[in-house]
Amino acid sequence: MVHRISGQRQAVLEVPGSGHQIVCALSYFQDNKQREAETLEGIIRKKQSEHIVKKHQNAQRLLKPLAVANPYTKYLTYPHQSLRTRRDHKKYLGLIRAITFLYQYQRDVKTVDVEGKPFEYIEVTLTDIEHANRLANEVLGQSLDDLARPSRTLLSGIFNMVKEMAEKENIPIEDISFNRRMIREYMNWTDWQIRAHIKQLEELEYLYARMGAKGKEYTYALNYRGQAEDSDKCYLNLTPVNEIKRLIQKGAA
């Protein structure tokens, strides 16, 4: 199962037998692994592993200790509504930095004067962010398989509706608010269907509720950006590169 708040997958297991039996089972698996390491196959596997580690270490020695500056941080979404993305936000920024660092030989090294001394650095590119978004979807992303099929259909329909509204009004998706009536009219669903399945989308933080101006009517905003329309996994709230380009052009106008 998936924990509602942390998003971590958990399995509840019941192990039959006494404590002595469990200790014997663990001891068996540990001893079996140690015996396997003494075989020819185990020795070959160890040598192959050492070769891979050495290759990576040699590659790391070629990298220079350069600082990485990200000029696009103000365009990257930081969703405070979602616990999952608050927890992983630093990981995401570190992923972008690591990608730029690894591509340092394909980047121009820039210099700035700091306290009378030259300081070298490289800058994050939009290509680096695109790579990071793709990796984050796989590494940090949650699976849409966790959703019931009707909830997944509802999410896709809401995304298409909000996307059309954002394009029509020329504003970002996160600035669009909507209510259940708008969903009913767009998807031709009953209010009961929407109430039944929108709750799961809230619990998994694909969207969140905003209280209406009079404190009575609930409106919603979307965390989901359509990342999993072509895949089974997505990491919520990542700003697409095309959206960053649009924001840059809007700021320059």
Mind sketching the topology for me?
Elements lengths: L18 H19 L2 H22 L5 E3 L13 H20 L7 E5 L2 E7 L2 H14 L2 E2 L5 H21 L10 H8 L3 H13 L3 E5 L6 E5 L10 E2 L6 H12 L1
Helix pairs in contact: 3-4, 5-7
Write up this protein.
This protein is mainly alpha-helical and 253 residues long. Helix content is 51%, strand content 11%. It contains eight helices and seven strands; from the N terminus they run H-H-E-H-E-E-H-E-H-H-H-E-E-E-H. It has helices at residues 19-37, 40-61, 83-102, 126-139, 149-169, 180-187, 191-203, 241-252, and strands at 67-69, 110-114, 117-123, 142-143, 207-211, 218-222, 233-234. Helix 3 (83-102) packs across helix 4 and helix 5 crosses helix 7 (191-203). It is flat. It starts with 18 loop residues before the first helix and ends with a helix.
